[in-house]
């Protein structure tokens, strides 16, 4: 007997098409399909492996860069400070905890500069718009303390682009202040930034829920109407800090300041105008002061460098605090 049953499996050899291509059931079709699938799989594996190597290489490069940043603490000052020299300490950027111009970092650099046997004089090179009144006062007081301990070593402030507000607060402790003609100096005032969203949340139908213990704990909450008593209290704080700022400048500059109330209004001035107002002693650069005033042309930088993760953490927590409170910190800026 003959079996007339047809095998309809796609893996069974079948007729070939006139163009040479096989259809399911043609001779060798299953083998060719299996080979094609294997080749495609190998190509995909090679492609995935190449991308994997690329991403691993990029990650390794990033990791090495981060480790180098963490380990870098600035130059080895001891290797450069041989002989008589002018010590340089930078106050660069916003004066705040966790930033490059952190008061502890600046004070550490100043102490190292004054204690070095070869230091003929110290230059505090300032390029700062200001920042925290607490940090600025800390540096100011440390300068005056070190000058008392080392009366034979002068300290001069040299303002580069900006020495305003907290930056000028720091400079006022120096024996003399130098600047460029176009430097910006002054801005002797205090500010506190904030915003109000009362009407915005009303229009959006948002209900504000604030729980506090203490009648004034929600001080200047941006989602609540302004409280005049609280506003007056904060204004009193700003005026008190302003008074402390003014007294520090008057103590540091003495009779060199002109009798002009605008000096303490928060206005900024050019270095050239600063000379006329007594805010600046003369026009000069760091190199000129080292060579012509201190008499030690060789400059050695004693500024410590903050570690990468410390700097990152400082930025993060500062931004987080501002976000949660809705108001910026009280600043000399």
Report the CATH superfamily: 2-enoyl-CoA Hydratase, Chain A, domain 1
Mass-distribution shape: flat
Tell how many strands the DSSP assignment holds: 10
Largest sheet: 8 strands, mixed
Mean pLDDT: 81
Portion in helices? 40-55%
Structural class: alpha/beta
CATH topology: 2-enoyl-CoA Hydratase, Chain A, domain 1
CATH class: Alpha Beta
- State the helix count: 9
Q: Whole-Å distance between the termini?
A: 105 Å
Amount of beta strand: 5-15%
Gyration radius from CA atoms, angstroms? 34 Å
Write the element-wise H/E pattern from the N-terminal end onward: HEHEHEHEEEHHEHEHEHE
Low-pLDDT parts are 5-17, 70-76
CATH architecture: Alpha-Beta Complex
Number of domains: 1
Account of the 3D structure:
With 333 residues, this protein is of the alpha/beta class. It has a single domain (72-331), classed as 2-enoyl-CoA Hydratase, Chain A, domain 1 (Alpha-Beta Complex). The protein has helices at 29-71, 103-115, 133-149, 166-171, 198-204, 228-253, 271-277, 286-294, 308-325, and strands at residues 85-92, 119-128, 155-164, 176-179, 184-186, 191-192, 268-270, 282-283, 299-301, 330-331. Strands 1, 2, 3, 4, 5, 7, 8 and 9 form an eight-stranded mixed beta sheet that branches.
């Amino acid at each position: 007997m003959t079996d007339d049953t047809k095998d309809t499996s796609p893996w069974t050899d079948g007729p070939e098409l006139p163009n040479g291509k096989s259809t399911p059931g043609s001779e060798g079709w299953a083998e060719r399909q299996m080979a094609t699938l294997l080749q495609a799989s190998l190509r995909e594996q090679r492609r995935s492996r190449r991308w994997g190597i690329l991403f691993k290489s990029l990650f390794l490069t990033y990791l090495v860069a981060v480790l180098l940043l963490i380990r870098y603490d600035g130059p080895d000052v001891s290797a450069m400070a041989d002989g008589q020299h002018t010590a340089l300490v930078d106050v660069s950027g916003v004066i705040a905890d966790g930033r490059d111009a952190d008061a502890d970092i600046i004070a550490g650099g100043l102490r190292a500069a004054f204690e070095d046997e070869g230091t003929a004089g110290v230059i505090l090179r300032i390029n700062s718009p200001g920042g925290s009144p607490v940090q600025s006062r800390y540096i100011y007081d440390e300068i005056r303390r070190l000058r008392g301990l080392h009366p034979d070593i002068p300290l001069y402030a040299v303002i580069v682009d900006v020495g305003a507000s907290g930056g000028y607060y720091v400079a006022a402790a120096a024996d003399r202040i130098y600047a460029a003609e176009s430097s910006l100096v002054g801005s002797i005032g205090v500010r506190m930034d904030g915003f109000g969203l009362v009407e915005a949340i009303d229009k959006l139908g948002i209900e504000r829920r604030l729980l506090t213990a203490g009648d004034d704990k929600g001080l200047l909450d941006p989602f609540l109407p302004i409280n005049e008593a609280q506003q007056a209290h904060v204004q009193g704080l700003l005026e008190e800090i302003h008074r402390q700022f003014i007294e520090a400048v008057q103590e540091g500059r003495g009779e060199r300041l002109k009798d002009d109330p605008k000096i303490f209004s928060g206005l900024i001035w050019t270095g050239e105008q600063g000379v006329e107002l007594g805010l600046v002693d003369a026009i000069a650069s760091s190199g000129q002061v080292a060579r012509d005033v201190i008499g030690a042309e060789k400059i050695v930088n004693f500024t410590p460098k903050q570690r990468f993760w410390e700097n990152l953490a400082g930025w993060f927590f500062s931004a987080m605090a501002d976000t949660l409170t809705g108001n910026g910190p009280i600043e000399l800026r």
